[in-house]
Amino acid sequence: MLLDEAHLLSDWSGRLKGEWDRLRRRKRPVHVVATCSSALRLAAGARESLAGRFERITFTHWSVSSLAEVFGVLPVEAPELLVRMGCYPGAFELRHDLARWSAYLRDAILEPAVGRDILALAAVRRPALLRQVFGVCASSPAQIVSLQKLQGQLQDPGALETIAHYLALLEQAFLVAPLGKYSGGPARQRAAPPKLITLSNALVAVVDPRGIPERATDPARFGAWVENACLAYAWNAGQRVSYWREEPLEVDGVLEGSWGSWAIEIKTGSLAAADLKGLGEFGRRYPRFRSLVLCDDEARPVVERAGLEAMAWGDFLLRGPPSGTPGPR
Q1: Domain map (residue ranges) of the chain
Q2: Which residues contact 59 (CB under 8 A, 6 or more apart)?
Q3: Distance of CA 49 to the CA centre of its chain
Q4: pTM higher than 0.85 for the full model?
Q5: What is the pLDDT of residues 194-207, one digit of tens each?
Q6: What is the rounded distance in angstroms from the CA atom of residue 263 to the CA atom of residue 188?
Q7: Strand 195-198, strand 143-144: pairing
Q8: What is the pLDDT of residues 110-153, one digit of tens each?
Q9: Helix (H, G, I), strand (E, B) or coil at 77
Q10: What proportions of the chain, in percent to the nearest 5, are helix, strand and coil?
Q11: What is the number of other CB atoms lying within 10 angstroms of the CB of residue 56?
Q12: Virtual CA dihedral for 85, 200, 132, 143, nearest 10 degrees?
């Protein structure tokens, strides 16, 4: 039994609990799935906790492998397509008409999510400020931005606590993930500025007035979109994702979870050995992490000469990090 938009029903949790207990007493073999357009918070506005009666199923954004499998896109082409346009299946057929594609994303994806779904998650006293916070995040893919700096970019600045709260709501709605800094102490991690990852590059594309970057003419912006896509893929796959920075050294992503423990650096275009100093220092301080550089094929010799493991960023988006015995370190 599928109950879509279950949170719109009056006293939905109490009614669901009663019906579920009745079915269990009668030993009826029924599976019940209650869904919501965004994150379904079982405790928000619910009289019953449903403790011991449910398991959470999360459907995140589509991956490159899903795009290739369902729509028959060549695996060699699918990663760059995801970087440029995201992976919303409803928008895929419109990708050759950018005006319709953008309108669909704004009207059918972004506006319902920010204008309605998040408002069902929690009380939002300043919806206009929430929209502005999302706009700044989507305009800053894979950028480390302090709350104070984010506050300064808003047309209608709010208190830092309000901005932090809205960032948390955007994460619960699977729109933006504010990544924390990896460190040995949780207090320092909380005090560090977040790294803003938009969880689908389609949302980055529809918000950026400059349009989709080209690899040849706008390599810096294209590189930021690749980094955002790789870290969003890890987050959507259920990994704990953070970053590391000790000026002037930095590691783009620190991953922990079912994939193992990884420190990854994401580079497009040319690459110098100096670009890998942060990864080397992080590996020295935290040797349990396996280092990996995601790069273009042309940069692999530089990485390997530095004693590090290299992988094409497109391959990472297709199937995640390598498994088995580590390569050169």
Answers
A1: 1-57, 64-319
A2: none
A3: 28
A4: yes
A5: 999 999 999 999 99
A6: 19
A7: antiparallel
A8: 998 898 878 876 788 898 999 999 999 999 999 999 999 888 88
A9: coil
A10: 45, 15, 40
A11: 7
A12: -100
